[in-house]
Amino acid sequence: MRRILIVGNWKMNKTASEAAAFVRDLIKALPASPSVDFGIAPPFTALESVRAALGASAFIQLGAQNMFWEDQGAYTGEISAPMLRDLGCRFVILGHSERRTLFGEQDDAIHKKIRAALKHGLQAILCIGESLAQRERGTTDEVLTGQLQGGLGGFRAEELTTLSIAYEPVWAIGTGRAATVDQAIAAHCTIRRFLSATWTADVADRARILYGGSVTPENVEGLLKSDQIDGALIGGACLRIDSFVKIAAVAQSIGVNR
Ligand SMILES: O=C(CO)COP(=O)(O)O
């Protein structure tokens, strides 16, 4: 069975010192031997201070919110996979809908980033999700499989053993309007079926599929109770200690029984 993964995507929030102080408090409040995995993706500028604050707390993984696909060179403003590895990152979020819509990221760029992440031993969390218009048009499944094909097409099954996918419907991000459990399960099943049909049953079985979009301490239990939902990628509710800790407690209680 897949272990639950709870990741806080802090987006463009918290200075390096605020982030470090938060993490020091968080470590004290989280269970000492968790039955689930935790990850935090602070802004690039806080990676170093968060790594120092995490110290030996290996149960919280450090990750980044984006990266460029080249290792080094004349790419002003960009950050590479080796740079992230050197700062202790273990994962990187790629293809977030804010990157796609606000910064024009397309599938071919996301594909190159995933390849670079895997080459350097970073776990990729590939974000996919439909807009409200696409859902209303009834094209959700097509959008999801198109984004999977665009991001992952051409990879060999052996390359995808550490892959995670985050299903983040665009209309649910930061809106307070989360997908229902049934909507999330339906999308996760579409994703898993596609992984199995395109690669192997093993790839589909191993991939952790997280839900993201207005996850809160109140709705996380319903989501995680489904064995199709392997965790959550959380924005707003992971910016506050109290709600992060509440979500962690729910995940922990479900995780021990998985
Ligand atoms: O985009 C998200 C996580 O990547 C979700 O953000 P919210 O949890 O704030 O809706």
Automatic annotation (TrEMBL):
The organism's place on the tree of life at top rank: Bacteria
Query: Which InterPro entries does the entry mention?
Result: Aldolase_TIM (IPR013785), TIM_sf (IPR035990), TrioseP_Isoase_bac/euk (IPR022896), Triosephosphate_isomerase (IPR000652), Triosephosphate_isomerase_AS (IPR020861)
The UniProt record lists the keyword Protease: no
Q: Where in the cell is it found?
A: Cytoplasm
Query: What residues bind substrate, as annotated?
Result: N9, W10, K11, G174, S214, G235, G236
**What Enzyme Commission number(s) apply to this enzyme?**
5.3.1.1
Which keywords does UniProt give here? Cytoplasm, Gluconeogenesis, Glycolysis, Isomerase
On subunit structure and binding partners, the annotation says: Homodimer.
UniProt-recorded name of the protein:
Triosephosphate isomerase
